[in-house]
Specification:
Order of helices and strands: HHHEEHHHHHHH
Structural class: mainly alpha
Number of strands: 2
Strand content: under 5%
Shape: elongated
Number of domains: 2
Keywords: DNA-binding, Transcription, Transcription regulation
Strand order of the largest sheet: 1-2
CATH superfamily of the largest domain: GntR ligand-binding domain-like
InterPro entries: TF_FadR/GntR_C, Tscrpt_reg_HTH_GntR, WH-like_DNA-bd_sf, WH_DNA-bd_sf
Protein name: GntR family transcriptional regulator
Domain HTH gntR-type: 1-65
GO molecular function, one term: DNA-binding transcription factor activity
């Protein structure tokens, strides 16, 4: 487990992203000062989770978040349990709510201009809007979690749809960095979706 954490630290420190090649087993073994068998075991665990892939004759590469084996494992769990489906929907909504608040405080001029263009040209959808929101929130972990949950919910539910005025109101609130207004708009349009029926 310790070797696994150390490899993850190397990935972070070296700034490796999806598509990048990992150092070889020998190099990792030398850098971490552990046996190659420990490195091999840690790499196997990362591959099982879908975080990396080994290409014969080429080496080991970091995979895109959407390809994680973890998604498939979670999918099997969610699809077997009605309560888990409700938990998925609720967790996704809560993450969206949090990302909206963060994005309202953290967007850059370039990001706001991008959102404004999409809304004005009516080239916006629920998925595109929240991809923008999660990126603008500047919290990579929340962005990745949302993408995983969104990919899942698409296999269970129809995609959410909001009217044009939702995006127009959100754009105005974002432009003013008005977190309270963003929260109110969100609550107005999702009131019936967020809470579970008991």
């Amino acid at each position: 487990m310790e070797t696994l954490e150390q490899i993850r630290r190397i990935i972070r420190e070296d700034g490796l992203v999806a598509g990048d090649k990992l150092p070889s087993e020998r190099e990792l073994s030398e850098r971490l000062q552990v046996g190659r068998s420990s490195v091999r075991e840690a790499l196997r665990a990362l591959e099982f989770l879908g975080l990396i892939e080994t290409r014969r004759g080429e080496g080991t590469y970091i995979k895109e978040v959407g390809n994680h084996q973890l998604i498939n494992l979670l999918g099997m769990f969610i699809l077997q349990d009605e309560r888990a489906k409700e938990d998925l929907a609720e967790t996704k909504r809560l993450i969206e709510q949090l990302c909206l608040q963060l994005a309202c405080q953290r967007w850059t001029e370039q990001e706001l201009a991008q959102l404004e263009k999409s809304v004005r040209q009516k080239m916006i959808s629920y998925e595109l809007f929240f991809k923008w929101v999660t990126v603008a929130s500047q919290n990579y972990l929340l962005e990745r979690i949302w993408r995983v949950l969104h990919n899942f919910s698409q296999t269970i539910y129809d995609e959410d749809a909001f009217p044009d005025e939702f995006y127009e109101q959100m754009l105005k609130a974002f432009a003013k960095r008005d977190v309270a207004a963003v929260a109110k708009i969100w609550e107005t349009y999702t009131q019936h979706r967020l809470s579970k029926e008991r």
